[in-house]
Amino acid sequence: MPATGNTTRTAPAxxxxxxxxxxxxxxxxxxxxxxTLASCGYGSQAAKSEDKKANVAATDGKKLSASEVRIGxxxxxxxxxxxxxxxxxxxxxxxxxxxxxxQSFNAGPSExxxxxxxxxxxxxxxxxPSINGYVKSKGSNLRIISGSASxxxxxxxxxxxxxxxxxxxxxxxxxxxxxNTQDVAFLNWISEKGWTVDxxxxxxxxxxxxxxxxxxxxxxxxxSIDGAWVPEPTASKLVSDGGSVLLxxxxxxxxKKFVITNIIxxxxxxxxxxxxxxxxxxxxxxxNEWINTNxxxxxxxxxxxxxxxxxxxxDAKVIDPAWPSIxxxxxxLATTLKTQADYAVKAKLIEQPDxxxxxxxxxxxxxxxxxxxxxxxxxxxxAK
Length: 384
Prior knowledge:
alpha/beta, five-stranded mixed β-sheet
């Protein structure tokens, strides 16, 4: 998976060696429910994952202010920073003995609930849940402290039924959930085509069918949907089942960049334990650099973590095309988050939000500067 602007490397067949697991014990996972989102939106309760790997953190440094940090993420390729950072111990190494308590979630709202309820400190999450969580709490519960990933969203269709973008009119197209990041993007695209869809029911010139990403491949094979606007690896699963990529969402964005995953933190935890937050960010920055420098090894590492989470790795025909379509980045791409909020307002899914203060990139920019990397912008939406 290349950094933005880097040349994509073709990966060899995925190694499935048990050695890649590095002692990770398979995590317990709650059953997925229809209507939940397995990427960047809304849905089921969290499934906790206990990482029983031996603590490899350095012990000769200064102890940090918290004995543990609870980190949430989804078992998806768009959360590769979390998957690889935990699998390789790259985040843990920066914590000087502070233990990581990982928690795997199926959807954004359950992760936001955990953050609000005090059972989660830091999380990897999509832009729409970040915006909704911030707005609903009137700016009191979270801050975005870093980016993590860009891209990785595609419109995949049945090529026998849909050959051009104009053919989508009158067809049934799935998105993960009403108001989630992909749903908002698709509704905006429909609007720009001059077509109309009711955002609540999904009915209109195109039938927008809100479907759990885990259910979408079966629905596609059964013919109950004609295509889907979905993140990876669901998009590549549909392609492996005979679908065709009609549109890559990156083509719709300036510089082909848009945020798909942020890193957020509880404002309470940030205030009480800034040293721990900074250490985690040191780990994520180093993880992102390792991913972009070693894309083949990183792909295998992410798949090993996915196997530990769900008991089954992704097939090579799914992960190989999915992996290079996601760009791993420290930059939160703040201007694209604001644009996504504007799309949701345009679709009448939310009222115009005040996002001032949603970002606090102070510690990230400190880490980046110390590493000799360029600082990143909050697009004027930083905490005052």
